[in-house]
Specification:
single chain; 186 residues; alpha+beta
Length: 186
């Protein structure tokens, strides 16, 4: 009896391992960047709803600023709020002709920015000299980015700032599987 159970256990382990390996693929999945940006936007609004805050409207001007910054980070291989020349999100707003001025009491807020770097895959597997990837879905990428922001005090504060009413999300994908995400607020 115990021999039969052991054989059954080994069979289950091998079957589970083979099933896990089949989820890995060598070819990169097609990711619709615009759809991914909107999924991140929707999840941001879910986080705001949990705190009884108004949803952020999608702002095409902020989206363009955010997309350009993500593209720049990907193209020039850096990850920072400031580009290599030292320009900040506020400089990018001005360069695009975007003005954000939110008055609350005596303070005027000029906007804010969150950035994230993720991967298109969660893990890799090497077999017979070939690399296979456990590619993430668009939903998994969006959830990973928003989760990381919500776990960071400064990023979470930007997301949950009650006086922000609009946002734009910009995503860029590198050839080596990095996902650059910029979120701009006003």
């Amino acid at each position: 009896m115990s021999v039969a159970l052991c054989a059954l256990c080994i069979s289950c382990v091998v079957e589970k391992r083979e099933k896990d390996i089949t989820s890995y693929r060598s070819s990169r999945p097609d990711v619709d960047i615009a759809r991914l940006e909107k999924k991140i936007h929707a999840q941001i609004n879910e986080e705001r709803k949990k705190k009884n805050l108004s949803t952020l409207l999608w702002d095409e001007g902020l989206h363009e600023v955010a997309r350009k910054h993500s593209d720049d980070m990907e193209r020039r291989n850096f990850f920072s709020h400031d580009d290599p020349e030292g320009r900040s999100f506020y400089d990018r707003y001005q360069s695009a002709g975007y003005e954000c001025r939110i008055r609350t009491g005596t303070a005027i807020y000029m906007g804010a920015e969150n950035i994230s770097q993720d991967n298109l895959y969660s893990s890799t597997l090497y077999r017979n000299g070939e690399t296979f990837f456990d590619w993430k879905t668009e939903d998994e990428i969006a959830a990973s980015v928003v989760k990381r922001w919500m776990q960071s005090r400064g990023h979470r504060e930007n997301i949950l700032t009650p006086y922000f009413k609009r946002e734009g999300i910009g995503v860029s994908l590198s050839r080596d599987g990095k996902v650059y995400v910029t979120e701009n607020f006003c």
